[in-house]
Amino acid sequence: MFRLHLNVFIMALASRALGLAFDGAVGFGAIATGGNSGTTVHVTNLLDSGSGSFRDAVSQSNRNIVFDVSGYIQLKSAVSLSSSLTINGQSAPGNGIGIMGGEISASDKSNIIIRNLRMRQGTLDTDTGKSAFNMGGASNVILDHCSVEYGQWDSIDAVGAVNITVSNSIIALPIGQQFGAHVETGPSTFYRNLWVSAHNRQPLSKDNTQYVNNVVYNYQAGYTSGNTGGVFSHDIINNYFITGPSTTSSKNAFYQMAADQSVYATGNYLDSNNDGQLNGAPDNTVGSSTVLSKPWASTSLGLATMSAADAVTYVLANAGATPRDELDTFVVNVVKSFGTQGTLYKNQANTGVSNGGYGTL
């Protein structure tokens, strides 16, 4: 255990020397400094609060959080993060760590790094106005290899957020509004994520956005700019949209792409025949938006190292918190049906997954 925690600390120092949140961090959130060389704090139990709890560990800034326990932490109320935190979910032993039944909020905070954490709100949270993860008004935030499921308001709420990255993550099965992510202000980077069975907002991008090598499955509306009330640019590169039983119109892979938006779209594919095979065709039609001849962000093409088809293979094998648990396995297997399985849920228990739908760690 000590060796694992030491390795986490050494890797953090190495990434700081490179100016990255961690080795391999990408996008606008990669500048997050996290806990820097601050205090290493151990989560030693699965209690909602008190000494050794996750809530207590994140209550002060300049901390690197490591886990001596595995399993679910069930929240009795939303937990608020402090600024300048690194949450190292990969340090948890066994099957990893998860947070269930409440919102994790980084609202109005800055410089937060979260890796390998399961955030699963669900109906155990009686506050339907909250999201699984809220970073409204936050700045310099990166989520990597996280699993965000059963959000009630949104899976990820990033209204007013500045410099964020969500990478290598699973954003799936939102309940309540059934929305994926809502981003305003930005800029934001969404990279190599798996989006599954949402009504809309995958994401809703009211900001300048990089959207590269994502996989969107069983959508009712996919990438959305909406009636933004703002003029923004969107780099949408090498993503794969796959329809499912809940998809009412395959054309809504790009949704509400308004005339005041500018879009660079290339290498995107759409599989709309629901035949159990991945066999889509190119689709880079972005509504009435202005089509850009080159990306608005200088780093976007450098991120797009995989074709859309290769991104499907990679994301299905690697997205989400590790080690992959029962719920994420369920989500990935639904996607692997390539059009024949999937539904939009209002209650996590309806999935049939154990532990009332949350899965067992």
TrEMBL record:
GO molecular function, one term: lyase activity
Signal is among the record's keywords: yes
InterPro entries: Pectin_lyas_fold, Pectin_lyase_fold/virulence, Polysaccharide_Lyase_1
Record's keyword terms, sorted: Glycoprotein, Lyase, Metal-binding, Signal
Signal sequence residues: 1-19
SUPFAM superfamilies: Pectin lyase-like
Protein name from the UniProt record: Polysaccharide lyase family 1 protein
Source organism of this protein record: Hypocrea atroviridis (strain ATCC 20476 / IMI 206040) (Trichoderma atroviride)
